[in-house]
């Protein structure tokens, strides 16, 4: 899904007009229209505003779209352009690592609970002597 469609769907999901969103984000209505039609793409700071406003992760805007935006604070290299080309495969790998990490944490919590029970049992044995 393109960024243009994502931005349009986010706005419509909240029942907002372009004018209302423009006011809330301090962006002109024509700029929002251009984003939603795909005539132009928002820079990273504008995407951060959208992400914060709609309470979605910034990464949602890059998941399925190769994205190039201008970095106004660039100090050299790439002529100020940043290219994000995260493949679907790479995103799947990160998601798998998160699931794996959650599984390891669950195992560690179980181990800690078992150790606590063992310590309590040992304390009871020692206190009975």
Task: Summarize this entry quickly.
With 129 residues, the protein is mainly α. The chain has 5 helices and 2 strands; from the N terminus they run ααααββα.
Count of DSSP E strands?
2
The total of helices stands at 5
- Give the uncertain stretches in residue-range form: 76-83
Oligomeric status: single chain
Shape: elongated
Largest β sheet strand count, sense and barrel closure: 2 strands, antiparallel
What number of structural domains do the residues give?
A: 2
CATH class of the largest domain: Mainly Alpha
- Through-space gap between termini: 70 Å
User: Per DSSP, what share of the residues sits in E-state strands of 2 or more residues?
Assistant: 5-15%
Cα-atom Rg, whole angstroms? 24 Å
Strand order of the largest sheet: 1-2
CATH superfamily of the largest domain: lambda repressor-like DNA-binding domains
* CATH architecture field of the largest domain: Orthogonal Bundle
Overview features:
single chain; 129 residues; mainly alpha; 434 Repressor (Amino-terminal Domain); 2 domains; two-stranded antiparallel ribbon; 2 strands; 6% strand; elongated
């Amino acid at each position: 899904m393109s960024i243009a469609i994502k931005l349009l769907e986010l706005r419509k999901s909240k029942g907002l007009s372009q004018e209302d969103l423009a006011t809330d984000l301090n962006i002109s209505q024509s700029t929002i229209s251009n984003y939603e039609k795909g005539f132009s793409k928002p820079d990273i700071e504008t995407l951060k505003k959208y992400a914060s406003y709609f309470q979605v992760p910034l990464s949602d805007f890059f998941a399925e779209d190769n994205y190039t935006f201008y970095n106004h604070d660039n100090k050299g290299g790439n002529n100020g352009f940043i290219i994000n080309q995260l493949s679907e495969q790479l995103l799947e790998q990160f998601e798998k690592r998160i699931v794996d990490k959650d599984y390891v944490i669950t195992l560690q919590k179980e181990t800690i609970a078992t150790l606590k029970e063992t310590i309590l049992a040992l304390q009871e044995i020692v206190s009975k002597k």
